[in-house]
Known about the structure:
seven-stranded parallel beta sheet; alpha/beta; two-stranded antiparallel ribbon
Amino acid sequence: MAPTKTLLRALAGEILPTPPIWMMRQAGRYLPEYRATRAQAGDFLSLCYTPDLAAEVTLQPIRRYGFDAAILFADILLIPQALGADLWFVTGEGPRLSTIQSAGDFAKLKGGADIHDHLGPIYETVRILAQELPKETALIGFAGAPWTVATYMIAGQGTPDQAPAHTLMTEHPDVFDALIDLLTEATIEYLSAQITAGAETVKLFDSWAGSLKGDAFTRHALAPAKRIIGELKSRHPDVPIIAFPREAGDGYIGFARATGADCVAIDNSVSATWAAKHVQSDGCVQGNLASSHMVTGGQALVDETRAIVQAFQGGPHIFNLGHGITPDADPDNVALMIETVRATETV
Ligand code: CP3
């Protein structure tokens, strides 16, 4: 049956008069109602693992703005935790994990199919959302791509240049490859379970793909995405998949064709006109307004939003930011962006 929700129609390749809109990190600290529910949960991880509250924060931006899609509220670092790594968040700094730097560290992790007990609450959040979302709103599940998740597991925290992961790749390629393999298997299991629970599309976040170049990009960003997408397509042939190899630059070209992704999400380090020419020629694209406009607003936000809608009007497009919205964003600027997208004439 042909999909009716606008997000799913764009993912199926349809060119719509107005692109569907959602926003990375749309449930987040820029919203007072998110901050209130997070305070009720106590901390970020408790919020992720309490299905009623995770569903509530997922629904908040839908109620406030009427986005065309909701993204499951969770985090890409729940997979390492499900595999047995320690995970905690330091307020004002970010995630911390036990590190994987040797064969001995790797051997302590569980198998890729052993994650489901730990992740049961996440699947429950998906089930609640599948019931509670408005009928026109699509539900997006997600996971981190193996490389990006591995960068956090290896370093034990976020790093500006992913140096510890590059070092392990060079000095202990057997450990590095085994970790990427394990994460690939776990990601297939995790996304497949989200789909079974009711996710209508899934997105693979490779936030640090841009630090892989040449052969390393092919081996550690493209190949795992291809394996994950291939396996998900064989289990769930009708479910579209969005890939986000952030800051891939030229690596965006042909990424959908090479991996089987239905849509490639584009960050704002490349222009919309470039992406329309080189990436949208293969199918649906998502993006790519700089998230700083959600802080600064004004005429620049309006002009840039219009330019993006117009650049992508010749093919299937989902409007989004180039990366997640930041905590200092003004909620009124989000409303202005949505109003501008929906009022922009495409001819
Ligand atoms: O987009 C959404 O609204 C869905 C939920 C979602 C979160 N994280 C919630 C979150 C998604 C899709 C993610 C993905 C994620 N998490 C990525 C990939 C996308 C990207 O941003 O590049 C990465 C790298 C992470 C890891 C992570 N989680 C970091 C580095 C941090 C700390 C930095 C920060 O922004 O605080 C988090 C925490 C996090 N994940 C928050 C949210 C709403 C903020 C936590 C809080 O409430 O304090």
